[in-house]
Amino acid sequence: MNNKLESEALLAQARLGAIVESSDDAIVAKTLDGIITSWNEAAAKIFGYSAQEAIGQHITLVIPDDRRSEEDLIIGKIRAGERVHHFETVRRHKSGAAIDLSVTVSPIRDPEGRIIGASKIARDISEQKRETVRRQALMRLTDEIRDVEDADEIAFVAARLLGETLKVSRAGYGVIDTLNETITIERDWNAPGIKSLAGVLHFRNYGSYIENLKQGETVIFADAETDPRTAGSAAALKAISAQSVVNMPVTERGRFVALLYLNHETAREWPEEELAFVREVAERTRTATERARVTAELRALNAQLEERVSAALAEQRILADILEATDAFVQVADMNLNWLAINRAGSEEFSRTFGVTPKVGDNIPTVLSHMPEQQAAVRALWGRALDGEAFTEVAEFGAPEREPRHYEMKFNPLYDERGRQIGAYQFVFDVTERIRDQVRLHEAEEQLRQAQKMEAVGHLTGGVAHDFNNMLAVVSGSLELLDRRTAVDDPRAKALISSALEASKRAGNLTRRLLAFSRQQPLKPEVTDPNRLVAGMSDLFRHSLGADVQLETVLAGGVWRIHVDQNQLESVLLNLAVNARDAMEGGGRLTIETQNAHLDKRYVARELGITPGQYVMIGVTDTGSGMAPDVLAKAFDPFFTTKEVGKGTGLGLSQVYGFIKQSGGHTKIYSEVGHGTSVKIYLPRYMGDAVDGGDADRLVDLPSNEGCELILVVDDEDLVRQFSATALTDLGYRVLEASNAQGALATLLDRPDVDLVFTDIVMPEMNGRKLVDLVREKRPDLPVIYTTGYTRNAVVHNGILDNDVELIGKPFTLEELALRVREVLDRAALKRR
């Protein structure tokens, strides 16, 4: 009994160790005195210290001096039996760099319940922090420059935020003279100890990259000493604290007029995330600067209008002197919303947006009378300005038959020389592309979060399936052995055993779905004709769908071949067909189609984790109830189902998602409530030569043996090993057992007459694949069959079973075991002849 408990404890410890080592988070154990006692692989990656370097050291090895008081507080809570949840702090990398972490610390207790140490789970949130800082900086930029009307001040605010956010030595804007190849800097932001570059600088004194800037190219170099454009002038650049540089041209009407620059005094990389942030700041600064310029022009206009309004109301060119050349859309209206003035750009944009060409003297609401909703929105905005409010608003406008656009509008009241309000004016910029970029960024972030969530749940379900398969192997196998030993004349016992076996089979199907979702199932891909596969399933589809559902197959000619596990693909298509049937209460039409598809770069840019290229599309479309957007967003989530309790596991579509991803493909769902759903799966085109697979379905009798062949069973799970040994004994084989790889090696040294090794893969200390590698150094021809409930990467790589591997997955039936053992032994005998 003690041995069994000890074995189970060791097994639990081994499982825990495997989880710790496979985690992406740093998992560290320490004594109450702060001495490190364990250090997983993720900790080595995050902190830079190997386990050999860290274990035995004090935890202050990775704690900055100014953070050491936190350790005392944490240990105090641990001694009191409390946990520390998701504590955000800063730790130190081996290189000295700071790391942002989210830390959870829990007490470690001995068997008597005494607290003897602490375990810490640390997640690196450095990039998340940096992204948060960049977003906050963009919001600060918007807030700080919203009401600034001086272009130089706007540029300095932007430079300061760039410098502080990216922690560089210098940031600023300068005016460019391309003829003389100089930059004039009025004011720049500098880190403490860094001198300003205010004044006039000649580009040629610092390298040849002015040629790139003239072409409108952004110039980036991480180290002036290694960049061929600056290597000869590196000393001059280092003298002005600019060993590393980003120079981003600013253009107006296609002309290179200014430069946004970032300098750092030492060599420094410029990640793409930082460059994207710089570009966004540059764009917002350009827009704000243009707004400030136009605002200044409008202020001058307002002064003129206040002096001339009584005599100039009838003049139609009141704005022509100042605003006809500007790209901003400018309009001026009186208190009755009659146009007093509108510039050329404003008139053209109004015509494009609303389909009506405005004229001075026209009434704005009357012109928009054919568009009541647009008319109400325009009246409301102008009404605020006519009430004396100065404000900025972003809104969408456009006629139904035209593409709507987003506009940033700044409204101001208009006064005469006596201070009476006589109207209002606005200036407007088209910001549609900026809004679309923000939407695309949000969608990409949502896709990334969804993919990370699916991956995390996949790791969990894979581990659950492993333990569940081990238990199922014992339960289902023992039931089969009991069935063989139960007399035929005991029908009640036979019926009970049959029911239990059926339940075990259904449980096995559930674990296979878990493994499919977690992308840990071993695949056996083969070259497949999609049309032949779909056509061959027609009878199965009709049988599964019933008489109320009309089946239609649309198979395109010349469809490319694919390299896929046929059994799994058939299961996916059947799964989708059954889901479609359940969505069509009262019947309907199910269409299964195939066609070639090319996913280009524009498409894959909108979808996370897809490679552009040639694919074969297999679509399953129904005329059922369809899915609402909130249901569609969760369709691939594991355990999510809209079916009644007991009628669905919620793993169907997540299994489809996992298998298609594991096969290098892509899945897309289109659905509309009341019209139906279409699920399209894309699998990569197979570019190799055709391979005709043999008929895998063979009807054979259960093989038997005369007791002359000896099989070594290796499994660290006692119950699984005992069942395997009993089953093989019932099949007529002689059997030896080993509970671990070391015991198996010792047995093979003593017993050279072993004919076959039947070994588990996932075992503590040494896995089954390493065991077999050692065995074959002495006995290269000894046949081996692996068994497992969770393959990981020992015999499966990129989801595909290795060529030289015989694998039987847990749980397996007695028939599967008998057939596979006999097949492998017979093949080995033929090789020896």
Can you put this structure into words, describing what you see?
The protein has 833 residues and is of the alpha+beta class. β23 and β24 form a beta hairpin.
Main sheet characteristics = 7 strands, antiparallel
Taken as a percent bin, the fraction of beta residues is 15-25%
Percent helix range: 40-55%
Spatial gap, N to C terminus: 48 Å
Number of discrete helical segments:
25
Uncertain segments are 311-316, 516-520, 645-651, 692-700, 791-801
Q: Which class do the helix and strand fractions yield?
A: alpha+beta
What distinguishing features does this structure have?
833 residues; alpha+beta; seven-stranded antiparallel β-sheet; 25 helices; 24% strand
Short description:
The protein is an alpha+beta fold. 43% of the residues lie in helices and 24% in strands. The strands form 7 sheets. Strands 6, 7, 8, 9, 10, 11 and 12 form a 7-stranded antiparallel sheet that branches. The protein has a 5-stranded antiparallel sheet with strand order 2-1-5-4-3, sandwiched between helices.
